[in-house]
Hints:
The protein is 46% helix and 14% strand. The protein is built from 13 helices and eight strands. The protein has helices spanning 4-18, 120-123, 158-194, 201-214, 221-240, 250-254, 259-264, 274-289, 292-298, 303-312, 316-327, 333-339, 343-355, and strands at 22-25, 48-52, 56-66, 74-77, 92-97, 103-107, 135-145, 149-152.
Amino acid sequence: GTNYHERFKNWLTEVQKNDWMPSGAMTDARGDRSLRPHQQKNRDTYLHIKERLDDGIIVSGVKAHITGAINSHEILTMPTRTMGEEDRDFALSFAIPSDAKGVTFVFSRQTNDTRRLDSPLDAGNPKYGIVGGEAIILFKDVFVPWERVFMAGEYDFSNELVETFAGYHRSNYGGCKVGLADVVIGGSYWTAEAHGISKASHIVDKLTEMIAMAETLANVVKLNITRMVYEWMRLAQDIAGGKIITLPSEKDLENPQIGKAIEECFVGKEGFPISDIIKMLRLIENMSVGAGLPEAMHGAGSPAAQKIMIARRSSLERKVDLAKRVAGIKEDKDFDKITGKDEKTYWQETRKKIEQKMVQIF
């Protein structure tokens, strides 16, 4: 056994006590994707252990596309894939301060990022931005003390770690995007109102569509069923091919004169009896062409009824309020708390820095 779990809990307690923001650094540069980590010509395409010491490890390598890296106090690394025995030096997880010696951040360029140097208005979302501090992280002979190492060569646990993290992260990622959607929906509704078309049927339909997609994770299962079932069945028909339309009847198959000849039309791969192939094709035909489709459309209420309910529960007023605060049309008390000053003062100081060319990109 190891004491990795105790180490991790101690680190997590420290993070919570100090209100630190960690970035999750999972993705490696990976180099030639057809090769495993230990087969790479340049080992630094994967973060790895270079040396084991009495008091810790020395690591080198690259983590790429790490969201929030620039804005974070700590870096929590994890393996990016399942590792084999020969990859044990790449089966690695640890946490270090973002300003640790040997760590370099390469800040990612983003569309219109230099607009922030022109004016707050041109930036579009000057207060919060769209995405947060993505960067490539270069590790060059970085020392990590043992108390902050959570995996160091236990390759047989790498798959479990990757899948556990990914499962939670993807759920969190969906929730994150719904938050963005609330602002966009509110801004869209406000824009439609500003142009006198918020009641137009095509605008209402578009807004409802946006809300439905945003609330998919919890609240619009039925509406998705009316679409996804049809798509499942379309793909099933595509995979099955034309045979589901030209299947003979059981009487034809049992006909002593033509039965055997008909069966030859449905021969498949060796080991799959013709009778089983026909049974499965019949099942797909029944499910993808039969009454299940209209039932999916109208069972538990029609799509129109579901859209009416979604529109009623959409809280458009709250979304508009949120968009107005982010856009700077309405006072944003959260921004005041973050910056420690009122918004008007903050932007006056920012404009002065821009005019004096005190804000630069190197």
